Amino acid sequence: MTLLVAAGVTVLSLWITTGLRFKSDRSDLIDPSLPWQLRYAEFKEKFPRWDDAVVVVDLGEDEASRGRGERFIAGLEARLRADGGFGAVTAGFAREEMPAGLLLTQPTERVRAVVEELRRVGPVLSAAGLEQLLGLSQLAGTSMPAEQREGLRGLLERIAAAGESAERGEVVPSVLGMERGKGFERLVTGSGRLATVLVSLGGAEGGDGATVGSVAAERAVNSRGERIAALRGHIEAVRSEEGLGGVEAGVTGVPVLESDETALSMRDATIASSLSLGLIAVLMLVAYRGVVVPLLSVASLLMGMAWSFAWATVSVGHLQLLSVTFASMLLGLGIDVAIHIVARLELVHADHGRLRDAVEQTFRGVGPGIVTASLTVAFASASMALTGFAGVGEMGIIAAGGIVLCTVSIMTCLPAMLVLLRRPEKSLRTHEGGESRGFMGGLGAAYHRRPRAVLAGAAAVLCGAGVLGAAVRYDPDLQKLVPSSTESVVWQNRLEADDARSVWHAVVLARDMTEARELTGRLRGLAEVSEVGGAGMLVVPEVELEERRGLLASLPDVASMRSIGEDAEDRPGAERAAVLRRGAEQLARRWKDVDAGVSGAAERVAGLRDEGLTAALGRYRVDRAELMDQIAELRGAAVPGLEALPTALREQFEGAGGAVLLRVYPRASEGGEGVLSPARLNGFARAVLGAAPSATGPAIQIYESSRLISGAYLQAGVYALVTIVLLLLVDFGMTRSGAGDAACALLPVLAGAVLMLAVMELVDVPLNFANMIVLPLMIGVGVGCGVHVVRRWRLQPGDEPPGLAGGSGRAITLTTLTTVIGFAAMMTGEHRGIWSLGFVMSVGLTAVWVVSVFVLPSVLKLRAGAGAGGGAAAHGA
Fold it and tell me: At what angle do helices 832-854 and 451-469 cross, to 10 degrees?
């Protein structure tokens, strides 16, 4: 009946678990009513595209590479617009929308480069006709520099292309390459090397706008990962087109970084859970030298795991970066119950005719210890829910219920399975010595013959470890948790290296441009800030503005040049075409033995019919007029306002209700530290908040959440410690002797924590977002070792070694090993946070076992010798 009920509950649990979801947004792990959370929510509301994915395309350095990059972006944009799964796609804006004054907002070097390029077109300004321009090129001879030679070849090729297009009845392309002034202006970094495409992942469903915690929001998060995968699929599809295979492109942005981390953590957690289960099963097969008992133990544990997943679904409804590790943790902790039961059964079942009687004796012996140990873990985990950090609270709720359910499943199902065996005594090993069987033979008794010497050595080690462990610090750098080879991290690093603009920046919302100007000036004055982007780009410092205006003013005054050569326009077209043909023929002859490229291009021009040459002449006239208009606009340019910006830019700078967005970027570190390293993040965030108290954005969120998280974990550790102390006092008795027993039970975990911190400092593993959970976990999980040792000593204080006889030492060793396996399996993952959690807990629990086996028995021996033990009667057993 027990197994039938358990099986029914398991089936129901599996059905319930189908509703379990996963959340990747770290903001959802924290109380949304906090002031800085409300500021971030306001930013998201006013700028719906806050979570756009950023496609980064390397345009290269030469014209050919840039051409391929342009084709790549155009092809990707077309595919994304045709895919209904995406929202808006911003790859740039029409150049005719771009006000000339926007150039004044660019770095001075870029303005200088534009001016120098326009100065090189001086011959065009002084040559009213194309035939005159070729005549000027004749004067330079064949000794012109390579750059001018390449320019001449390009001009001749464009003339030929224009004429040939006209002869075919096609649209005549620009002779001066004026298409550059039309079409689209790409969103590029300051160097112009990297182009970006902003892609809304919201799609037609409305994206992530659902209320946090709602089913719609969780579905949006899940679909966001699918859209990122689809986006990468489109990039690969475009790259597979002919000639585009060499284009380097990738995806980054805050949502992509979080999604990649989510996918990585889920994969690592799944691998760790599977590996943990397999290793635990192998360990039990070896330890029990049989198949039946290990399989029954694992089966009873798996039922409890199924119940635990259902509990996670019902109690919280989703998993996140922290709670995704609970399965691997429960496997190691849950199997401990089975090990203690089997270890005691192996010692007592031979003394009973029926296994039922042996089970009763076993439960009387180890049952209280199992219940106490499980409750300490459950209460320690549940105490996490009392903190202000929802992420650790959810983890605590899930783990607390999970460990209780696993304990119940094993304590009910494992004995039922064993009793139903036809010959259970054949499956259970038998150990001589009964409940007084020693531990580690003569060695175990030998090292406890001098308890004072053992404790003196232990105290010296702990003092040294305490000095080392005190140096461990919390590192809020989330990027260190994800492998640097992850695509989103690679492209984020390339963006930051190119123009020092990290996705981990601050955001400030101004009411209007007047306030934006004031805030921009204040923020730019901070030593920790490199630049203020967003609408801040429209606020140019006066010194820089004057320098850029001076550069533009140095451009030729085209007003007096417009009338040059007007008389030539009155000449017959055939006559002008003949002059142009003769000029091309002369160039072909002159360059024939000097440069085949120039000569060949000139021959193409000379071979055009009058119709083609006339069309090229006409197109040159249009190009020259457009060039003069462009220069005239630049000479009189002024910094534009928000209303004059192209729509693609204005949407990024101006939000709902007229809010104006400033993006504040941290200054690069001379020491090479990451943006999120404590040295940079803390100083940057404090400086920005000092200048603009309403600042928000990714960097501020991480700064504020790091302070909250570190405090919440310490708070959870204190709650766990207080809860467990009270629980132990209730369990052992509210007496002086009971208080001593509680202190002894806590000794291994407290000493183990000190040793763990020392090892972390030695191997340079800091505390981080993921492994800070060890503080409450170590207290809850580790105290079980001390509880079992003290309970065993209370029953038989005269055993050698104290507290480790009667199978307790063997069971503690096996349970510690299985729990360590559960955490060590996490170290196979690539996610550095999960890896560090597995490493730290493995080290900590190993240290707890060392103290439980080598130090605590000496303490108990001294207590017994001093009369504190008093035997079973003294403890009311």
Answer: 160
Q: Specify whether the CB–CB gap between 805 and 235 falls below 8 A.
A: no
Angle, vertex CA 443, rays to CA 340 and CA 457, nearest 5: 95
Q: Which of 15, 555, 100, 43 is nearest to 310 (CA)?
A: 15
pLDDT of residue 867: 53
What are the DSSP calls for 644-706, one per residue?
GS-HHHHHHHB-GGG-EEEEEEEPPPTT---TTSHHHHHHHHHHHHHH-TT-BSHHHHHHHHH
Question: Within its chain, how far is the Cα of 162 from the centroid?
Answer: 51
Peptide bond into 801 cis (omega under 30): yes
Tokens at residue 205, please?
């469903």
Instruction: Give per-residue pLDDT as tens, 5-36.
Output: 999 999 999 999 988 887 766 666 677 788 98
Task: Read off the pTM.
Answer: 0.71
Give Cα separations from 485 to 218, 311, 480, 700 (angstroms): 28, 36, 11, 26
Structural contact between residues 89 and 230, judged by C-beta atoms closer than 8 angstroms: no
- Would you call 64 helix, strand, or coil by DSSP? helix
pLDDT digits (tens, 9 = 90+) for 378-390: 887 887 777 767 7
How high is the pLDDT of residue 184? 67
Residue of 401, 378, 474 whose CA lies nearest to 720: 378
Taking Cα atoms as reference points, which of 631, 640, 439 lies closest to residue 551? 631
pLDDT at 286 over 60: yes
Q: What is the pLDDT of residues 647-694, one digit of tens each?
A: 888 888 999 888 999 999 988 776 667 777 777 888 899 999 999 999
**Residue 467 CB: number of other CB atoms within 10 A?**
12
Q: Do 348 and 359 form a contact (C-beta atoms < 8 A)?
A: no
For Cα atoms 544, 547, 551, give the angle at the middle one, nearest 5 degrees. Answer: 135
